Amino acid sequence: MSAAGPVGEPVGEIVTGEAVVLGLRAASFASRMLAALLDAVIVGVVFGALLWGTSVLLSETDEAAYAAITLAESALCLIGIPVAVETATRGRTVGKLVLGVRVVRDDGGPVRFRHCLVRAVVGLFELWGLAGSPAIISALVTRRGKRVGDLLAGTYVVRERTAARHVPLPPMPPELAGWARTADIGRLPLPVVTAARQFLARTATLNPASRTALGVELADALLLHVSPAPPTGTDPERFLVAVLVERRDRELVRMQRREARTRDLERSIGRG
Protein backbone atom coordinates (compact mmCIF):
# COMPACT_ATOMS: atom_id res chain seq x y z
CA MET A 1 0.00 0.00 0.00
CA SER A 2 1.50 3.28 -1.10
CA ALA A 3 0.97 6.82 0.07
CA ALA A 4 -2.33 8.34 -0.85
CA GLY A 5 -3.86 11.75 -1.12
CA PRO A 6 -6.48 13.13 1.28
CA VAL A 7 -9.94 11.69 1.34
CA GLY A 8 -12.66 14.34 1.26
CA GLU A 9 -15.69 14.40 3.48
CA PRO A 10 -18.93 13.41 1.74
CA VAL A 11 -21.50 16.13 2.14
CA GLY A 12 -24.19 15.28 4.66
CA GLU A 13 -22.86 11.86 5.63
CA ILE A 14 -22.80 10.93 9.33
CA VAL A 15 -21.14 7.89 10.88
CA THR A 16 -22.19 6.31 14.17
CA GLY A 17 -19.81 4.71 16.67
CA GLU A 18 -20.49 1.35 15.07
CA ALA A 19 -19.28 2.69 11.71
CA VAL A 20 -22.80 2.72 10.30
CA VAL A 21 -23.22 5.31 7.58
CA LEU A 22 -26.35 7.39 7.75
CA GLY A 23 -26.97 9.07 4.41
CA LEU A 24 -28.34 12.52 5.18
CA ARG A 25 -28.55 14.41 1.93
CA ALA A 26 -29.42 18.10 2.11
CA ALA A 27 -32.97 18.82 0.96
CA SER A 28 -33.37 20.49 -2.40
CA PHE A 29 -34.18 24.19 -2.64
CA ALA A 30 -37.56 23.41 -4.17
CA SER A 31 -38.63 21.02 -1.41
CA ARG A 32 -37.61 23.51 1.26
CA MET A 33 -39.54 26.30 -0.46
CA LEU A 34 -42.67 24.19 -0.83
CA ALA A 35 -42.50 23.07 2.79
CA ALA A 36 -42.05 26.68 3.93
CA LEU A 37 -44.98 27.85 1.80
CA LEU A 38 -47.25 25.13 3.19
CA ASP A 39 -46.24 26.01 6.75
CA ALA A 40 -46.83 29.71 6.00
CA VAL A 41 -50.35 28.97 4.74
CA ILE A 42 -51.13 26.97 7.88
CA VAL A 43 -49.74 29.70 10.14
CA GLY A 44 -51.73 32.30 8.21
CA VAL A 45 -54.98 30.37 8.63
CA VAL A 46 -54.40 29.85 12.37
CA PHE A 47 -53.40 33.49 12.85
CA GLY A 48 -56.42 34.72 10.89
CA ALA A 49 -58.74 32.53 12.95
CA LEU A 50 -57.26 33.87 16.19
CA LEU A 51 -57.62 37.47 15.03
CA TRP A 52 -61.21 36.89 14.01
CA GLY A 53 -62.02 35.22 17.32
CA THR A 54 -60.35 38.06 19.22
CA SER A 55 -62.29 40.72 17.31
CA VAL A 56 -65.57 38.93 18.01
CA LEU A 57 -65.02 38.07 21.66
CA LEU A 58 -63.18 41.22 22.68
CA SER A 59 -64.96 43.83 20.61
CA GLU A 60 -65.52 45.98 23.71
CA THR A 61 -61.87 45.86 24.80
CA ASP A 62 -59.86 49.11 24.67
CA GLU A 63 -57.31 49.55 21.89
CA ALA A 64 -54.22 49.10 24.06
CA ALA A 65 -55.39 45.74 25.45
CA TYR A 66 -56.49 44.62 21.99
CA ALA A 67 -53.05 45.50 20.56
CA ALA A 68 -51.31 43.59 23.36
CA ILE A 69 -53.47 40.52 22.75
CA THR A 70 -52.83 40.71 19.02
CA LEU A 71 -49.08 40.96 19.63
CA ALA A 72 -49.22 37.90 21.89
CA GLU A 73 -51.13 35.98 19.22
CA SER A 74 -48.53 36.98 16.63
CA ALA A 75 -45.72 35.71 18.83
CA LEU A 76 -47.64 32.49 19.45
CA CYS A 77 -48.21 31.79 15.75
CA LEU A 78 -44.85 32.91 14.40
CA ILE A 79 -42.56 31.70 17.18
CA GLY A 80 -44.32 29.69 19.89
CA ILE A 81 -46.15 27.12 17.76
CA PRO A 82 -43.30 26.51 15.25
CA VAL A 83 -40.79 26.06 18.09
CA ALA A 84 -43.09 23.70 20.00
CA VAL A 85 -43.89 21.61 16.91
CA GLU A 86 -40.29 21.34 15.68
CA THR A 87 -39.02 20.49 19.16
CA ALA A 88 -41.69 17.85 19.78
CA THR A 89 -41.27 16.22 16.36
CA ARG A 90 -37.47 16.57 16.31
CA GLY A 91 -37.28 18.84 13.33
CA ARG A 92 -40.51 18.39 11.42
CA THR A 93 -43.45 20.66 10.72
CA VAL A 94 -46.56 19.88 8.70
CA GLY A 95 -44.89 21.20 5.54
CA LYS A 96 -41.71 19.25 6.16
CA LEU A 97 -43.67 16.10 6.90
CA VAL A 98 -45.57 16.38 3.61
CA LEU A 99 -42.37 17.04 1.62
CA GLY A 100 -40.38 14.34 3.45
CA VAL A 101 -37.72 16.62 4.93
CA ARG A 102 -36.50 17.29 8.44
CA VAL A 103 -34.25 19.76 10.29
CA VAL A 104 -31.15 18.22 11.89
CA ARG A 105 -28.05 19.57 13.59
CA ASP A 106 -24.87 19.99 11.56
CA ASP A 107 -23.57 16.75 13.08
CA GLY A 108 -26.71 14.89 11.98
CA GLY A 109 -28.28 14.71 15.45
CA PRO A 110 -31.85 15.72 16.31
CA VAL A 111 -32.54 19.40 16.93
CA ARG A 112 -33.40 20.62 20.42
CA PHE A 113 -35.37 23.53 21.80
CA ARG A 114 -32.55 26.06 21.46
CA HIS A 115 -31.98 25.19 17.79
CA CYS A 116 -35.68 25.55 17.02
CA LEU A 117 -35.92 28.81 18.97
CA VAL A 118 -33.01 30.39 17.08
CA ARG A 119 -34.47 29.31 13.73
CA ALA A 120 -37.91 30.68 14.61
CA VAL A 121 -36.69 34.02 16.00
CA VAL A 122 -34.42 34.64 13.02
CA GLY A 123 -37.17 33.43 10.71
CA LEU A 124 -39.46 36.13 12.08
CA PHE A 125 -37.23 38.66 10.35
CA GLU A 126 -35.80 36.82 7.35
CA LEU A 127 -38.99 34.97 6.36
CA TRP A 128 -41.82 37.21 7.48
CA GLY A 129 -40.27 40.65 7.91
CA LEU A 130 -38.23 40.57 4.68
CA ALA A 131 -40.51 38.27 2.66
CA GLY A 132 -37.96 35.46 2.64
CA SER A 133 -35.40 37.22 0.44
CA PRO A 134 -32.42 36.69 2.83
CA ALA A 135 -33.40 33.03 3.21
CA ILE A 136 -33.54 32.50 -0.55
CA ILE A 137 -30.17 34.16 -1.16
CA SER A 138 -28.53 32.26 1.70
CA ALA A 139 -29.98 28.92 0.59
CA LEU A 140 -28.70 29.44 -2.96
CA VAL A 141 -25.11 30.29 -1.97
CA THR A 142 -24.47 27.94 0.98
CA ARG A 143 -23.30 24.36 0.50
CA ARG A 144 -26.22 22.70 2.29
CA GLY A 145 -28.86 25.20 1.26
CA LYS A 146 -28.99 26.85 4.67
CA ARG A 147 -31.03 29.93 5.41
CA VAL A 148 -29.70 32.51 7.86
CA GLY A 149 -31.53 30.86 10.76
CA ASP A 150 -29.82 27.56 9.99
CA LEU A 151 -26.40 29.22 9.89
CA LEU A 152 -26.93 30.75 13.34
CA ALA A 153 -28.56 27.67 14.85
CA GLY A 154 -26.07 25.15 13.41
CA THR A 155 -28.72 23.18 11.54
CA TYR A 156 -29.72 22.19 8.03
CA VAL A 157 -32.62 20.40 6.31
CA VAL A 158 -32.24 16.84 5.03
CA ARG A 159 -34.24 14.62 2.73
CA GLU A 160 -35.59 12.17 5.26
CA ARG A 161 -37.21 9.79 2.79
CA THR A 162 -34.07 9.20 0.77
CA ALA A 163 -31.72 8.25 3.58
CA ALA A 164 -29.22 5.70 2.38
CA ARG A 165 -29.89 2.08 3.26
CA HIS A 166 -27.37 0.56 5.64
CA VAL A 167 -25.27 -2.14 3.97
CA PRO A 168 -23.73 -4.56 6.51
CA LEU A 169 -19.99 -5.00 6.56
CA PRO A 170 -18.49 -8.17 5.09
CA PRO A 171 -17.27 -10.74 7.64
CA MET A 172 -13.82 -10.45 9.20
CA PRO A 173 -11.15 -11.86 6.83
CA PRO A 174 -9.93 -15.02 8.61
CA GLU A 175 -6.26 -14.35 7.82
CA LEU A 176 -6.47 -10.93 9.52
CA ALA A 177 -8.57 -11.85 12.56
CA GLY A 178 -5.59 -12.45 14.85
CA TRP A 179 -3.81 -9.29 13.74
CA ALA A 180 -6.96 -7.19 14.16
CA ARG A 181 -7.57 -8.39 17.72
CA THR A 182 -4.17 -7.13 18.86
CA ALA A 183 -3.87 -4.05 16.64
CA ASP A 184 -3.98 -0.58 18.13
CA ILE A 185 -6.77 1.15 16.24
CA GLY A 186 -6.79 4.84 17.06
CA ARG A 187 -9.54 7.39 16.58
CA LEU A 188 -10.37 7.01 12.90
CA PRO A 189 -11.36 10.13 10.94
CA LEU A 190 -15.08 10.00 10.25
CA PRO A 191 -14.74 11.14 6.60
CA VAL A 192 -12.34 8.27 5.90
CA VAL A 193 -14.57 5.72 7.65
CA THR A 194 -17.57 7.00 5.70
CA ALA A 195 -15.72 6.76 2.40
CA ALA A 196 -14.47 3.25 3.25
CA ARG A 197 -17.98 2.07 4.12
CA GLN A 198 -19.37 3.44 0.88
CA PHE A 199 -16.50 1.97 -1.10
CA LEU A 200 -17.02 -1.53 0.32
CA ALA A 201 -20.74 -1.30 -0.45
CA ARG A 202 -20.05 -0.37 -4.10
CA THR A 203 -17.04 -2.45 -5.06
CA ALA A 204 -19.03 -4.66 -7.42
CA THR A 205 -20.15 -1.63 -9.45
CA LEU A 206 -16.76 0.09 -9.76
CA ASN A 207 -14.39 -0.01 -12.69
CA PRO A 208 -11.56 -2.44 -11.79
CA ALA A 209 -8.85 0.19 -12.13
CA SER A 210 -10.81 2.73 -10.08
CA ARG A 211 -11.61 0.07 -7.50
CA THR A 212 -7.94 -0.79 -7.05
CA ALA A 213 -6.79 2.83 -6.86
CA LEU A 214 -9.50 3.88 -4.42
CA GLY A 215 -8.96 0.80 -2.26
CA VAL A 216 -5.25 1.61 -1.94
CA GLU A 217 -5.99 5.27 -1.16
CA LEU A 218 -8.48 4.44 1.57
CA ALA A 219 -6.28 1.73 3.06
CA ASP A 220 -3.34 4.14 3.24
CA ALA A 221 -5.55 6.75 4.92
CA LEU A 222 -6.63 4.25 7.61
CA LEU A 223 -3.12 2.85 8.00
CA LEU A 224 -2.02 6.17 9.48
CA HIS A 225 -4.20 5.39 12.52
CA VAL A 226 -3.50 1.66 12.91
CA SER A 227 -0.47 -0.01 14.47
CA PRO A 228 1.20 -2.31 13.71
CA ALA A 229 0.71 -2.51 9.97
CA PRO A 230 -1.04 -5.62 8.65
CA PRO A 231 1.04 -8.53 7.32
CA THR A 232 3.02 -7.80 4.17
CA GLY A 233 1.03 -8.39 1.01
CA THR A 234 -2.38 -7.80 2.64
CA ASP A 235 -5.06 -6.88 0.12
CA PRO A 236 -6.19 -3.26 0.73
CA GLU A 237 -9.88 -4.13 0.61
CA ARG A 238 -9.51 -6.93 3.14
CA PHE A 239 -7.50 -4.56 5.35
CA LEU A 240 -10.40 -2.07 5.22
CA VAL A 241 -12.87 -4.77 6.19
CA ALA A 242 -10.70 -5.99 9.06
CA VAL A 243 -10.27 -2.51 10.54
CA LEU A 244 -13.93 -1.53 10.26
CA VAL A 245 -15.22 -4.85 11.61
CA GLU A 246 -12.81 -4.75 14.57
CA ARG A 247 -13.74 -1.13 15.27
CA ARG A 248 -17.44 -2.00 15.21
CA ASP A 249 -16.95 -5.01 17.50
CA ARG A 250 -14.93 -3.00 20.01
CA GLU A 251 -17.58 -0.29 20.07
CA LEU A 252 -20.23 -2.92 20.68
CA VAL A 253 -18.29 -4.39 23.60
CA ARG A 254 -17.80 -0.92 25.11
CA MET A 255 -21.48 -0.17 24.76
CA GLN A 256 -22.46 -3.46 26.43
CA ARG A 257 -20.08 -2.74 29.31
CA ARG A 258 -21.56 0.72 29.79
CA GLU A 259 -25.06 -0.73 29.85
CA ALA A 260 -24.01 -3.37 32.37
CA ARG A 261 -22.46 -0.72 34.64
CA THR A 262 -25.63 1.37 34.36
CA ARG A 263 -27.80 -1.60 35.34
CA ASP A 264 -25.52 -2.38 38.30
CA LEU A 265 -25.67 1.23 39.44
CA GLU A 266 -29.47 1.29 39.15
CA ARG A 267 -29.74 -1.90 41.19
CA SER A 268 -27.39 -0.56 43.87
CA ILE A 269 -29.38 2.67 44.11
CA GLY A 270 -32.59 0.68 44.32
CA ARG A 271 -31.24 -1.42 47.20
CA GLY A 272 -30.09 1.73 48.98
Automatic annotation (TrEMBL):
Lipid bilayer topology: Multi-pass membrane protein
Residues annotated as domain RDD: 27-154
GO cellular component term of the entry, any: membrane
InterPro entries: RDD
Protein location: Membrane
Keyword field: Membrane, Transmembrane, Transmembrane helix
Pfam families per the UniProt record, alphabetical: RDD
Transmembrane segments: 34-52, 64-85
Domain of life, source organism: Bacteria
Name the record gives this protein: Putative RDD family membrane protein YckC
Highest classification ranks of the organism: Bacteria, Bacillati, Actinomycetota, Actinomycetes, Kineosporiales
